[in-house]
Amino acid sequence: MESVILYGSQYGTTRRYAEALGRMSGLPVHNAQHKPDLAGCRLAVHLGGLYAGGVKGLKQTLQALPQDARLMIVTVGLADPADPANVANIRRSISLQVPPAVLARSQIFHLRGGIDYSKLNLMHKTMMSLLCSHAKKLPPEKQNAETRAMLETYGKQVDFVDESTLDPVLAAIREALS
Ligand SMILES: Cc1cc2nc3c(=O)[nH]c(=O)nc-3n(C[C@H](O)[C@H](O)[C@H](O)COP(=O)(O)O)c2cc1C
Q1: Closest atom, ligand 1, to C-alpha of 79
Q2: Is 10 found in the same domain as 27?
Q3: Does residue 63 sit in the same domain as residue 126?
Q4: pTM (2 decimals)?
C-alpha cells in the first residue's frame, strides 16, 4: 500500500467522508483502528472524528506510519471550520497529538460532520450533557464555535456532511501523487 486513506469514526460520519474520498481518488480505504499494515506506505490520508479535541484513530495511524511517509490529517467535527478560532483550537490540539517532525510534513484539513443523539453511547451522552450544562452558563462573549455548535444541536439529529468539501483534500492528494 503506497498510498492509503485511513479513518477513525465512532458514529459513521467520518467513515462516509473516507469512503467518498476513496471513490473520488481511487485509493484504498481502511479503518485505522483495525491497525492496517502500513509498511512501505508513502502517503497516508487520515480522517478522524473530533472527540474533545482528539482526532479519532490518529494515534494508531501514527504508530503504524513509516517515519518518512507524508501525512494528511482531515478532522471531522460538529463546530464550523469556517470559524478561524475553531480551526486554531483544533490545530493547537493536533500539535499535542503529532510529533513536531511529522507535523512539519503534514497537511491539515477540516470538515463538518454531524451528530445523532439517539445513537450516542451512554458515556458520550453523559459527556455532552455535562459539557452543554457548563456551556449554557457561559456569557455569550465566552462562547466559541464549539460551544455554540454543541448548544444549537444538543439532543438533535444533524448532518452537515458535504462531500464537495473533500475537493481540496482530493486536489492535495493528486498533487502529492503527481
Ligand atoms: C463526546 C463527544 C465529544 C465531541 N467533541 C467534539 C469537539 O471537540 N469538537 C467538535 O467539533 N466536535 C466534537 N464532537 C462532535 C463529533 O466530532 C461529530 O459528531 C463527528 O461528526 C463525529 O464523527 P463520527 O460520526 O465519524 O464518529 C464531539 C462529539 C461527542 C459525542
Answers
A1: 11
A2: yes
A3: no
A4: 0.97
The pLDDT assigned to 99 comes to 94
Same-domain status, 40 and 91: yes
For residue 41, how far is its CA from the centre of ligand 1 (angstroms)?
28
Q: Which CATH number goes with the domain that contains 73?
A: 3.40.50.360
Q: Where are the beta strands (DSSP E) in 113-159?
A: 114-116, 157-159
Ligand 1 nearest atom to the CA of residue 53, by list position: 8
Measuring from atom 2 of ligand 1, which residue has the nearest CA?
Answer: 51
Does residue 14 share a domain with residue 88? yes
Residues 142 and 123 reside in one and the same domain = yes
* Domain range enclosing 133: 115-158
Percent of the chain residues past pLDDT 90, beyond the cut: 93
**DSSP-assigned states of every residue in 128-141:** HHHHHHHHHTS-GG
Would you say residue 129 has pLDDT above 90? Answer: yes
Measured between alpha carbons, how far apart are the two ends of the chain, in Å?
17
Residue 63 sits at φ, ψ, to 5 deg, of: -65, -35
Share of the chain above pLDDT 70, in %: 99
Pocket of ligand 1 (CB under 6 A): 9-14, 49-53, 76-79, 113-115, 120, 124, 127-128, 146
